[in-house]
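Hi there, hope your week has been kind to you so far. No rush at all, and the record is pasted right below.
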Amino acid sequence: MLSIAMSELIQILRNRLVLVTSFIMPAAVSAFFIYRHELFASVASLGYVAAVVMFTVGAFGLYTTSVTTLASRRQNLFLKRLRSTAAGDATILSGLLLPLTVIALVQVTLIMSVLAVVAGAPDNILLLVAAVLATVAMMIGLGLATAGLTNSPEHAQVTTLPVSLGVIAVASWVGIAGTEELTLLKRLLPGGSATELAVNAWNGGVAVTDSLILLAPTLSWVVVAVALASRMFRWEPRR
């Protein structure tokens, strides 16, 4: 797996489009939110800023790039060649997605650290870590499922839009409006409960047990996404 991951990391560093999608765009959006954190805190809260940053990196840096990468590796038959080796399916996919996952986690950590320095530390770091890890797992699962519907890297620009824009819209809705109304709907939508968990972790004022329950909907989306991926993911281009 590590050899596949190192090879993939080299490919990422050589690909300008992936670099822009994975690094520059999420960093630029996050920098804007941190720069205007007082404005967004007055509209919602600092927890909302943390949640939007988390989903910006997760949606564009991890999810979209994962789908594009897997579609590209399928198109050039790299997936087919890897599958002819002794490596198992899980090892191949883990190796391909490991660099993107690590990059996303490092980005979120650095960006939230800057936010903490600028605006004050989160109330519960462990809860925030749980929210980030659950979000990353969900976006990876959704990426695998979407890759099964994506024919090429160019096609990924279309197939990833509903999820990437959708989770950010949900994060903004929940982060600004809260969950006092339409509670169940907001928590069941992909990204809703993770947003609420991130907001609670940063702002405080909510019992830890009440916040931990919010992990269930996000992890349920992981299960659903993996189940869809197992049915739809293809290792070779359609003929």
User: Anything to note?
Assistant: The first helix runs from residue 2 to 14.
